[in-house]
Structure formats: C-alpha cells, structure tokens
Amino acid sequence: MRAERLISAETIRERLGKPSQEEIGDMMQDVHPGLVKSSIEFVFENVQQLLESSSGLKRAIYQSEGVVPSRRKLCVNVLLCAISAGLRSSFLDALNGDDKIFSRFYFDMDTGFRGVLGSILQTESWMKGDIEGEDIEAVAREHMDSIKNHSYEAPEYVNAGGKLASDLYKWVYEVTGAQAISLGVTAA
C-alpha cells in the first residue's frame, strides 16, 4: 500500500503558476464584477439568516473560548463562512475541473479576502491587550508575510479580494450594530 502525501492548497496554487497580464485583465473585466455583485447580493439577501447564524456562532465561540465574542469577531466569522468558504469551494471545483485560470483567480481572491479579515482580528487582539505593544509589530509582520503577494499570485486578484472583504465587513458590522440581536449568551 502506497502512502499518499498531503499537499497544501498553497502548494497547489504555487504549482499553477502566475497568470499572464492578459489573463488577469480578462478575469478582472469579465469575471470579477460578477463575483463582487453575487457576493454583495448574497450577503444582502441573506442578512437575516447570516445574523441568525451569528447567534449559533456566538454560542459556539463562547463555549470553546469561555468569553462572549466581540461584534468584530462575529462579523469576520460570518463572512468567512458566507463568502470565503465559497471562494475556496470555487477554487477546489475549478481545480477538480483542471481549470487553471479560475483556480488561480479564486485562490488569490480568497487570499486577499482572508488577509483583510485576519488583519481585523489581529488588530482586535492588540487592542484588547492580548498582544503586547512590542509584539504587535512582530505579529503584524508575520501576518503580512503570510498574505504578501507571492511571486505566483496576481496582486490584482489579492487586492480585489481584500477590497471585497473590507466592503462587506463594513456593511455587516453596521447591520449587526443596527439590529438588536438577542443571542442568548451571557458571560459567566
């Protein structure tokens, strides 16, 4: 029996290589606007379901961490579940279909999307004092190194994913503040 080696998604993405400028231009013109539109529509049309899912998420985080999660953390997690998971799924579908162009696009968009949301959580940890002042620079550097544009990534895709995350986060954060959400979780 032959042992199979697991390969990370990042390694697979690296093996797909860097897209050409023509490919980037085509994807940003033809595919990106539709992805942004469908992501925004999904969040807007499902806001009530997303808010309800944040209730379960809040309880799950409380049970695992013993603290009531912040609104920031809930918004980030809702977007990770609602949009980032879809980007990653689209990457895997394209990969299984041997479509290098769409595989590169979805992976790089998700890299930017997750990068912005991860930065929000890093900032919150620093603000709460979970990260000491001297350590914040090291943590920020480490985080930025993990999302920096690798030579194989398309910065246009990564930046577009980050912008999408930023725009959706602002809206979801605003909506969650405007709604009185009773999540049934109290700090002990």
Give a nutshell description of this structure.
The protein is mostly helical. The chain contains eight helices and no strands. The longest helix is centred in the middle third of the chain and has 29 residues.
Describe the protein's architecture and organization.
- The protein is built from eight helices and no strands.
- The chain has 188 residues and is mainly α.
- It starts with 8 loop residues before the first helix and ends in a 10-residue tail after the last helix.
- It is 77% helix and 0% strand.
- The protein is globular, with a radius of gyration of 18 Å.
- It has one domain.
- Helix 4 crosses helix 5.
Report the principal-axis shape: globular
Low-confidence stretches: 180-188
Summarize model confidence as the mean pLDDT: 82
**Radius of gyration from the alpha-carbon trace, in angstroms:** 18 Å
Strand element count: 0
> In this structure, how is the largest beta sheet organized?
none
Number of domains: 1
Rounded to the nearest angstrom, the distance between the terminal CA atoms is: 52 Å
Helix and strand content put the structural class at mainly alpha
Please report the number of helical segments. 8
Strand and helix layout:
Elements: H1 9-16, H2 21-30, H3 32-45, H4 47-65, H5 71-96, H6 100-128, H7 133-147, H8 155-178
Helix pairs in contact: 3-8, 4-5, 5-6, 5-8, 6-7, 6-8
